[in-house]
Amino acid sequence: MRSSVRAVDFIRNYLLKRHLAMKKEIVMKPSDLVSNIKMEKKGKFLVPSIATLDEAMLATGFGIYNILHMLLSGLILMGVIMQSLSLGYVLPAAQCDLNLTLQQRGWLAAIPFSAIILTSYFWGWLADTKGRRFVMLFSMLISAVFAVLASFSPEIISFAILTFTSAVFMAGPSSVVYTYLGEFTNIRHRDKIVAFGSSFVGIGTVVLPAVSWLILPINISLPISFLNITYRSWRLLVIASNLPLAVGFVLLLFAPESPKFLNACGQQEACLKVLRQMYSVNKRMPQDTYPVKSLVEETQAVKAMESNSLTAVLKSMRDQTEPLFRPPLLKWTFLICFIQFGLFGTTNGFYVWFPTILNSVANHEGSETRICDILNAHQKVPSNGTETICDDTMNTATFELSIYIGLVFCSMYIIVGFLVDFMGKKLILLTILTGTGLCGIGAHLAHSQAAVVLFAIFQMCGACIGLTNAVTVELFPTKYR
Fold first, then answer.
1. 64-263+297-376+392-480: CATH topology
2. Which of 249, 262, 310, 317 could form a disulfide with 271 if both were Cys (CB 3.0 to 4.6 A apart)?
3. What ranges do the domains of the chain cover?
């Protein structure tokens, strides 16, 4: 009897050891992955039938699928930027209809960014538990609806509330789109594709003033009696600036969920289905020739919610948050947040004022002086005590200069995309952030035209947004991203 038990134990232990040995042979080592990245340039791979997701992504190659996905993500990103920055062109044209002071314009311009600050964490948590695609589809649709409603606002309060609500949902794709883009590209090309995707931020800064130039000069005066408003061109611009998000929503209906998210959720078969599609399009080969047949499960899988109650939601958010503020992620959390604060504060926060600055400088009559003095001069009441006449006309030079500067922005993003493989992310980040930061200091001290030029260069630090997000994708596990 004992001999039989020993024989069974011997066979079981032998089979277990044999299984583990085979698994070690099948799953590639990190050094093998590095070799594969080098061999990928030559179009060759050593891909086992059971592979990690990074190995499986390398096997899909790089081609048309990745470019089309980059264009889709870029369109969504352009929509986010245009909606965020559109108030910079809308408010100067709407100041008479809504009776806006300079201070009120400042508060209204801050609305999209305050919405992002207040809700991005929620959208990020939702994207890590429900999926990137689901969050973007849901939020983009609702955001577009409220933007249309905001264009019919009769006064400042309703305009502020509807704009804020639209911006709350716009924060969904704003929080997720970079992650969604990065997770569809293999490690060899990820930095480059995210950098090129970020160039749509620059494209947005060209398209927005071009669309504004096209719409704002149109002499529209359509009275809507039950709302007690006159529908003018600036209201049409509010809708037009949301069109990229609307088009992105339609195209996203035909796109799949992120393979990295699917794998993290334990949906290996769904993940493989996406990878086979990528492989088939990139390699122009049948899907059944994809060499990877199964994936190694991630050790840190996304934890499914056991309940939809408020307590469960808060507990899930706490579980997602705590690791970010504990080693080893703590130092990366503070570093990334510090860099992102500077980048978005400059490219978004200051850019909202850029059309106002350009318009004020173009209309300024008198000796050269600092930007702040020019802005104050345009708000002063005449000495005879009469009220200033409301002037909501936009100088055409404002649109022209904005387009030229946007083209420079766009060029910067593209140049960074080409240089990242040669210089590396760290050197590019240090160079651009240092140079643009010094120009920001100089813009405050310089006069008129020189100040405008320095102010424009200052905002070019936005070319580092894509690189910073590429670093974030690498530093943080899928479930915390």
1. Growth Hormone; Chain: A; (1.20.1250)
2. 262
3. 64-263+297-376+392-480
